[in-house]
Each structure stands twice: as C-alpha cells, then as structure tokens.
Design a protein that fits this description.
Helix content is about 35%, strand content about 20%. The chain is an alpha+beta fold and about 725 residues long. The chain has 6 domains: about 140 residues, 3-Layer(aba) Sandwich (Rossmann fold); about 160 residues, Topoisomerase I, domain 2, CATH 1.10.460; about 130 residues, Topoisomerase I, domain 3 (Distorted Sandwich); about 120 residues, Topoisomerase I, domain 4 (Orthogonal Bundle); about 35 residues; about 80 residues, no CATH class. The strands form 6 sheets. It has a 7-stranded mixed β-sheet, with helices on both faces. The chain has a 7-stranded antiparallel β-sheet with strand order 15-12-13-14-11-10-16, covered by helices on one side. α3 packs across α5 and α9 packs across α12. The termini are far apart.
Length: about 725
C-alpha cells in the first residue's frame, strides 16, 4: 500500500517527490514505490457564493440582507477544478491507505488540505508533515517524524472560523454598502480597521496647524551645546525669549557643571519574523509587504536558502542549536566569510535573545538553512532580502555593542547647555553592518547630536565663541508607510481605549503575519488608499467609507479580540461555536446600521463617458485586467475597458483610429471623436464583403483599415466611394 502526499504547490510537490523517489510523471501527480505525490494550486475549494444558497441572492437587494446560511457550504473553484478532480480520482484508488498533508505548515495551509479532503470525502487515516524548511534533510526528517492529522484539528477549526467570519461579515456589509449607496464599496473585519488607522492619521495631518519655535545653540570652540530648560525641553515658542537667552550668554564664559559617563551595552536585534523583515525591506529598499513575502517565498521554496517565511516568532528552539554551526558554514562565502570566521573560532554565544522555547509558536524565526549558497543564482531582489536575513542571523550571534555615553552640561549665566557624545569600546554586532546601519540608539530621543567629548573635564571654564537662535516649525505626524503600518497592525494597542483589553491583545493584532501584506494590497487595489512614494494616502473613497461603516467594525479593538479568540481556538482553548454565534449576531447588527444610516456618499470616480445602453455616466473602477468603465445602474450592467488599446481600424466618418471596447453583446469598435460604433464582428465582415465584391481601391482600404479587416458600414462606404468614382469618369 502507498501513501498519498498532498502539497500546496506544484514546485513543492516536485521537491518532495524527488526526495521520496517518486520519478514516474503523470497528469496531476508523481508516483514512486511508496508514495504518490500530488498538489493543490493554492485553494482548490472555497466557501460557496451567496447565489448557491438561494437564487434570490443573484440580485443584490437590501431587503434580502443579512445572508445567514444555517450551514456553510463548500464549492470547487472552477478555474482550478481540473486539479481538484485529479486529486479526487487519486483518493479513490484502492492502493492508497493514508494521506499525508504536506501543505504549508500554518492556518491557511491546513485549510487548503482539509477542504479538499472534505469535498472529496476522504475517510481514510491521515497524517501531517510539519517542517520549517524545504531542504532535502528537512523533508526526510519531517517524513520520519510525521504527526497525527488529528493533532491539528484545532488549527483547522481556527481556519474555518476565520474563513466563515470573513464571509458573513465581509459579504453582508459589502452588499449592504454597495446597494445602499449604488457604489463599489466593500468592508471587512481586518481591512476596515486597517484603513481606519490610515484615515485617522490623514485627518490628524489635515487638522494640524504648524507652530514656529526656536532653539538656542552655543559654540564653546571644541564642542557645542543646546539650551534646555529645567524639564530638559529645548523648544522655545516665544522668539523674544529665545533672543533674551542668546543675548544673555553671548560673549560670556561657561563652566562644565556636570559630566556624566554611562557604560552602555546594546544587544543585537532579534532574529527576523515576517513582519519585522517586511518592515526592514520597506525602509531600506522600498519593497511593499507583498513583494517581500513573494520574494521570500522564492528563497524558501525555489532556492531553499531560508526557513519558513510566514512566522510570527523571532526565536529558535533548543533542538535547533546543534544545527547552527552547519548553517554558519553554509553562508561563509563572499563578504560573509570574514564575519562568520570569528563566530566559529570559539563556542557559539547562545543567549535567550536567540533561543527561547517559550516564545516559539508554530514556527521559529526566519534564518538561513544549511543549503549550499550560490549568490549568482539570486535575482537582485532575492539578493537584497537574503543579505538582510543572513546579516541578522550572524549579528544575533555576535557580542553586544558596548560604549560610554558622555553627557555634559555647561552652565552660562544660569542657563544650561547640554552636549552628548559616544565612545565605542566594543563594536560587537554593529561590525556585521558596518556603515550600512545607523549607529543610533536611545541617545537620539531628545535630538541631541553626537560629538567628540572625551577630552572634557568637569569644572573646565569655556569661552563662548558664538551663540545663535535657530527657527523651526512643528511637524504633523508622518503618514503611514508600509513599514509603520505593519507595526501598527501588529500592535494596535495604542488605538484601544480600554486598558485591560489593550493589555490582553498585545500579543495579537490586525490579521496575521501571513495575511497583512494581502490586506494592504487589497485596500490599495480597491482605491481606498494610494501609494505616493513610500507613503500610504487615503483616497476620498476610503475616507468616506470609514464614515459609512459601523464604529465597531472600524475599531482595531473588536478585530484584535477576534484574532485573539482565533488564536485560542487554534491552541484548543477557545469555543468555536460561541465565536461564530457572536460573528452572526454582529453581521446582523452592522447590516441594520447601514440600512438605517442617513449618511450620504459622493462618488469621485464618475467619468465623462456615457453608457451606450442607458445614457448614464459610467464609473471608473479597478478591474482584474486594469481600469474599467462600469454603468452605475446594476440592472443595466454595461462594462468596458477604461483605457482600451487603439486598433488599426479607422472610423469611416472621421478617419480616426478606433479602440476596441468590451460590451455585454461582445467586442465592438467605437470612435472616441465622433461616436461611431459597431460590433467588431460586423465591422470585419464588411471589409471581407467589400474585398470579395469586385475591384476595390487598395489605397482607400488602407486609409480606413491600415490593412486590417473592416465592417459593413465601412464596406458600404467603400462601395459608395467606388460608385462615385465610376460616375465621374468621362
């Protein structure tokens, strides 16, 4: 008897099959002596659409909401159904005694496999492959230590709750908003509070009124000092006061009244989890969260150079410590060799900042594997990301940065001027980064710049060489970048008023590390937010949406609580039925709020193009194939591309090139200058008719078609033109 192995992607399946000796290629699977390896294409099965529960849901109407199926149904995704049925056929084979789930080791990966098993009615035993890297050694070890499939039932329960909650809340509130305001609006339990944070920040920026302030700086010759008051604040909002201080001390003498030397030790940053890596890649390279995740997935699956990407842990487990020397040797190439050499020359410095079993959940931190590295095989983006991961891994094994922080106060006529410096005693982990990482730390919190101060002594008399006031302005809070938004999504506590709840959700957040990139992309693709450089700026549509939705739905508080319960369900500590009951009750509530709302929505995406079917102005929206023009009348349903590509067809009336547009009745040509329009099929048939009907002036055809086919209207024009020519002949 053989075992059926179900991977999540064909590329992963091929690697597993190679390691397991499955060399026989078949349509949809690979087979060997002991195993048959097949694959999904991501999700092959999903929750059924509303209209599959009741035909009335084919039409979007407020009176049919909320949609509350008693039991949620599954359906096979049409586009990838061929692979589902290939798997289902395999599952019916009598020589397959068990199934091994080898999808991604996480909540969504579990859901991918279990829904396929449920829809295909798999009743035989199943086990779980749970690995954190795709190397041959990790795959062999994983198959040698397969876990019972039932051990992950609670993870599956959590995944189902997440999916059903998103369906019940997302589809109900989306239909309610869309039908109420006759606009393409959608909301969800994670994307809406994420959008709300961006909108709130934008409102703070718009309300912000800048204020002028002044600082006073004294030049003591070999160093300078910045004035501070008794509470160590340096901003002066009264120019006259700043001038008084400047006049008072200018030309005078000061004395170093205080000189403090503090020995500081700064440990290396923790190893990467997905969110921290996405933040760093955004700050350093401008990568979007989604780009980082997809690039990282390639390093994990294709190159096998890093461990499992979708992790929320920044620590390793004790059983991984023996593998660390091998990982270090594998990366000891190129510029990394000189950094690795001193670590391997003595016993590794293993601390709680790297290894802590209590802080590892499903997966450990992202670190390099022991796979041989060929840097030339990586594309530029992969190279940048791999460099971050390798250097962070090396750095965490280096000793801490040690330095003396020197703070001195120079007193002049009763006014205090503060100066700060740093003396490096041990570069430690900073050596890994050289000059590529800012050498800053807590000392910059009060904006005192670094300078050389080690030659100064307490009690020294200092002559002021110069003193000046510097005018500045207060600045509004910065707009979110993807890096700062990821931080806010990870720790939404500051947006939660209730102190007890804020503490309770500090370890959860909005979404998960695996889904946050997708959420950010979704609010951008739906025109709620736009990228301006690195900044995320809400659109008019996004700002209005936040006014339309329930106050609870846009608060991180409720969503963070839900994520916390989902995590508890995954650990076997939460109540699945109680959670879903609460979700259903909330879905009913938010639909009622939308129905009863008296807030108006003003669309800002109305085009100047009229619908050819009903005459209403079309709306510009984002579609799967680019921007589309859509009729606001849902019963009309006209759709066409907003930026159609010009064809070689020329208008028979004004001779301008015409684009091809998509209409309900099929493709058509339409002149944007004079409005001439005809079905593409008829337009092409016309030229064919003109060509087969006798002598045709080739130059005349080329004038209208650029050697392309022309339709009936143009054909008639050509015939008429030829007849006119014949009549005029003497």
């Amino acid at each position: 008897m053989k075992a059926l192995v179900l991977a999540e992607k064909p590329s992963v399946a091929r690697e597993i099959a190679r390691v397991l000796g499955c060399n026989s290629k078949n349509k949809g699977y690979l087979e060997g002596p002991k195993y048959v390896v097949t694959w999904a294409l991501g999700h092959l099965v999903t929750l059924a659409e509303p209209e599959e529960y009741d035909d009335k849901y084919k039409t979007w109407r407020l009176e049919d909401l909320p949609m509350m199926p008693k039991e949620m149904k599954l359906k096979v995704i049409k586009e990838s159904s061929h692979q589902f049925y290939a798997i289902k056929t395999l599952m019916k084979r009598g020589d397959l005694s068990e199934l091994i789930i080898a999808t991604d080791a996480g909540r969504e990966g579990e859901l991918v496999a279990r829904w396929i098993m449920e829809e295909a009615k798999w009743k035989k035993p199943f086990k779980r492959l749970w690995i954190s890297s795709q190397t041959d050694a990790a795959i062999r070890q994983g198959f040698a230590q397969l876990k019972p499939g039932s051990a992950y039932n609670t993870l599956y329960d959590s995944a189902v709750c997440r999916a059903e909650a998103d369906w019940l809340i997302g589809l109900n509130v989306t239909r309610a908003l869309t039908t109420k305001y006759n606009a393409q609006l959608n909301a969800g339990r994670v994307q809406t509070p994420t959008l709300a944070m961006i909108v709130q920040r934008e409102q703070e920026i718009r309300k912000f009124v800048p204020k002028d302030y002044w600082t006073v700086r004294a030049d003591f010759g070999d160093y300078f000092g910045d004035w501070r008051d008794k509470s160590q604040q340096g901003r002066i909002f009264d120019e006259a006061k700043a001038e008084v201080i400047k006049t008072k001390v200018r030309g005078g003498q000061g004395r170093i009244s205080e000189l403090k030397v503090e020995s500081k030790s700064e440990p290396a940053p923790l190893a990467y989890d997905l969110t921290e890596l996405q933040r760093d890649a955004n700050k350093r390279f401008g990568f979007s969260a989604q780009k980082t995740l997809s690039t990282l997935q390639g390093l994990y699956e294709r190159h096998k150079l890093v461990t499992y990407p979708r992790t929320d842990s920044r620590y390793l487990t004790t059983d991984m410590v023996p593998t660390l020397p091998g990982r270090l040797k594998s990366i000891a190439i190129g510029e990394y060799a000189a950094l690795v050499r001193p670590i391997l020359a003595k016993p590794l410095n293993i601390t709680k900042r790297l290894v802590d079993n209590s802080k590892v959940t499903d997966h450990h931190a992202i670190i390099p594997t022991d796979q041989f590295v060929q840097l030339s095989a990586l594309n530029p983006d992969e190279r940048k990301l791999y460099d971050l991961i390798v250097k962070r891994f090396i750095a965490v094994l280096y000793p801490p940065l040690k330095y003396d922080r020197i703070t001195l106060i120079t007193n002049v006529e009763g006014e205090e001027f503060f100066s700060r410096g740093k003396v490096i005693n041990q570069l430690g982990w900073k050596e890994v980064y050289g000059k590529t990482m800012d050498q800053d730390g807590e000392e910059k919190d009060d904006n005192l710049p670094e300078q050389l101060l080690q030659s100064q002594k307490k009690g020294d008399i200092k002559q002021i060489k110069d003193c000046k006031t510097i005018k500045s302005q207060t600045k509004p809070p910065a707009r979110y970048t993807e890096a700062t938004l990821l931080s806010a999504m990870e720790s939404p506590g500051k947006f939660i008023g209730d102190e007890e709840l804020r503490d309770a959700v500090k370890n959860s957040g909005l979404g998960t590390p695996a889904t946050r990139a997708e959420i950010i992309e979704k609010i951008i693709n739906t025109d709620y937010v736009e990228r301006r450089g690195k900044e995320l700026v809400p659109t008019s549509k996004g700002i209005q949406l936040i006014d339309l939705v329930s106050s609870e739905l846009k608060s991180p508080e409720l969503t963070a609580k839900w994520e916390q319960v989902l995590a508890e369900i995954a650990r076997g500590q939460g109540n699945k039925a109680r959670f879903m009951e609460g979700i259903r009750e909330y879905a009913v509530k938010i639909v009622k709020e939308v129905v009863n709302s008296d807030i108006t929505f003003k669309a800002d995406n109305v085009s100047r193009v009229k619908c050819p079917d009903c005459g209403k102005y079309l709306m510009t929206i984002k579609g799967k194939r680019g921007r589309m023009l859509v009729c606001p009348d849902r019963e009309c349903g006209h759709r066409e591309t907003a930026e159609p590509q010009l064809s070689h067809f020329r208008c028979p009336q004004c001779k301008k090139k015409m684009p091809i547009i998509e209409k309900k009745t099929g493709p058509a040509v339409r002149c944007s200058t004079c409005g001439f329009s005809e079905k593409l099929q008829d337009f092409k048939a016309g030229l064919q008719s003109a060509r087969s009907g006798g002598k045709v002036n080739k130059k005349l055809i080329e004038t209208y078609s650029d050697k392309e086919s022309i339709g009936t209207s143009l054909g008639d024009l050509l015939k008429a033109a030829l007849q006119q020519t014949d009549t005029e002949k003497p």
